[in-house]
């Protein structure tokens, strides 16, 4: 589900949470177990991910299952890809310009 | 010569408030530093396709102001500006940058020029005050890009 590595947060715990949720929804308990973390510890990380809109937590009072927000992940991926491509257009022109000025030897570097 | 696949611009999000782009150029660091810091060069390469650099001011000293404006064929101007924070040719250049249409999402851009065997990896790190600001910046690129596509379609339709 998550193909772009850069979408994952740099924090290893949050990364692990996202990777786990990519396999399906999970309760906070289920998430905490393999991470060997306390429930409040995991909840803290989950809050950050929720605030970023990457994770949604269900309202079921007993279990409050967590799941990924695929729309949000897709949005960020699309914005980033478009931004990257805009710059790549400039960089391609820069490639041509660099080879032009190097060939001509006009400029003394 | 690095093949084109390897050369393509990569973008990563190293933290919630950052954008990092990396790209290899077939030129030494000092050449690349020059083409980033002299207006006569910047005018030749900066901007998405079909835009023209109409203003390029670079006061290359710490505290000096830079301002680059590109104009689209429909006359709309897209302006970026900021102040230089650190100048260490040909390795490092740090400046503030803001898209003038959204001045609140200002960021600090650090350019590092890493030369190896005559080729230079340019790393552009953009650090924002918040994740929301960073996303505004990413989104703005999306909007410009989408408008660019629409414009291309309009052009195409006009020739049919």
Rg over alpha carbons of chain B: 16 Å
Proportion of helical residues of chain B: 25-40%
Name the CATH homologous superfamily of chain B.
Answer: START domain
| Largest β sheet strand count, sense and barrel closure of chain B | 8 strands, antiparallel
Strand order of the largest sheet of chain B: 1-2-8-7-6-5-4-3
Structural class designation of chain B: alpha+beta
Low-confidence stretches of chain B: 1-5, 149-160
Q: What about the largest sheet of chain A? A: 2 strands, antiparallel
Order of helices and strands of chain A: HHHEEH
**Average of pLDDT of chain A:** 80
| Number of separate helices of chain B | 4
Q: Fill in the CATH topology of chain B.
A: Alpha-D-Glucose-1,6-Bisphosphate, Chain A, domain 4
Query: What value does the average pLDDT of chain B take?
Result: 85
CATH superfamily of the largest domain in chain A: Winged helix-like DNA-binding domain superfamily/Winged helix DNA-binding domain
**Separation of the first and last Cα atoms of chain A:** 48 Å
Largest interface: A-B, 31 and 40 residues
Short summary:
The complex is a heterodimer of chains A (109) and B (160). By secondary structure, chain A is mainly alpha-helical.
Task: Give the helices and strands, then pairings.
The complex is a heterodimer of chains A (109) and B (160).
Chain A: H1 12-21, H2 28-35, H3 39-51, E1 55-57, E2 66-68, H4 70-104
Antiparallel strand pairs in A: 1-2
Helix pairs in contact in A: 2-3
Chain B: H1 4-7, E1 10-12, E2 18-25, H2 29-37, H3 39-45, E3 52-58, E4 65-71, E5 77-88, E6 92-99, E7 107-116, E8 119-128, H4 131-159
Antiparallel strand pairs in B: 1-2, 2-8, 3-4, 4-5, 5-6, 6-7, 7-8
Task: Characterise the protein shown here.
With 109 residues, chain A is mostly helical. Chain A has two domains: 8-68, Winged helix-like DNA-binding domain superfamily/Winged helix DNA-binding domain (Arc Repressor Mutant, subunit A); 69-109. Helix content of chain A is 61%, strand content 6%. Chain A contains four helices and two strands; from the N terminus they run H-H-H-E-E-H. In chain A, strand 1 and strand 2 form a beta hairpin. Chain A is elongated and about 70 Å long. Chain B has a single domain (4-159), classed as START domain (Alpha-D-Glucose-1,6-Bisphosphate, Chain A, domain 4). Chain B has helices at 4-7, 29-37, 39-45, 131-159, and strands at residues 10-12, 18-25, 52-58, 65-71, 77-88, 92-99, 107-116, 119-128. Chain B has an eight-stranded antiparallel sheet with strand order 1-2-8-7-6-5-4-3. In chain B, a hairpin with a 5-residue loop joins strand 1 (10-12) and strand 2 (18-25). The A-B interface holds A 6-7, 9-10, 52, 76, 78-91, 93-99, 101-102, 107, 109 and B 7-16, 19, 21, 23, 25-28, 30-32, 34-35, 41, 44-49, 124, 131, 135, 137-139, 141-142, 144-146.
